[in-house]
Amino acid sequence: MAYALDSNILLRAVEKNSPDRPLALSAIKKLLERDERVVLFPQIIVEFWVVATRPTEARGGLGFSPEEAEQLLRELPALELCPESDRIFPEWERLVKVHRVRGTRAHDARIVAAMNVHEVSHILTFHSGDFQGLGGVTPVEPLVL
Q1: I need a labelling partner for 114 at 20 to 30 A (CA). Which of 38, 44, 60, 89 fits?
Q2: In this predicted model, what pLDDT tens digit does every residue of 120-132 receive, in sequence order?
Q3: Sign of the torsion formed by the C-alpha atoms of 125, 129, 134 and 139
Q4: Candidates 3.40.470.10, 3.30.1490.20, 2.60.120.10, 3.40.50.1010; correct CATH number of 2-144?
Q5: What is the pTM of this model?
Q6: Sign of CA dihedral 29, 17, 9, 84
Q7: Domain extent listing, the chain
Q8: If 0-12 CB within 10 Å is exposed, 13-18 middle and 19+ buried, where does residue 128 land?
Q9: DSSP E strand stretches across 35-104
């Protein structure tokens, strides 16, 4: 199977004081030990960067400097980075129309579009509800692994 990592998994994995950190790290480790295909999308890295470098006083920010965020990304295990593709936008457009997506769910629909294009069936996430009903991908919470 192929698994995408959601940005919330990456963020919890690097947030030293997060009670979810051990769970996020353990889930990633289990997938890699099972030789699953584990991927990231550019959008996930962008979302990670936004929250990681947002000030701690601001909505969930972790307060890392850009240099620290870059270093944290470099320290990730060697995961496959799926490239942007001309096929992602049309798939996203199809998904938002078919599923009548509104508001911030459009971001999740874009992840699902990338998953569909790159044939990634599962997404490891702490927020499985974000991906329900968006086109046949399977959200998996870390506790399930």
Answers
A1: 60
A2: 999 999 999 999 9
A3: positive
A4: 3.40.50.1010
A5: 0.95
A6: negative
A7: 2-144
A8: middle
A9: 37-40, 80-81
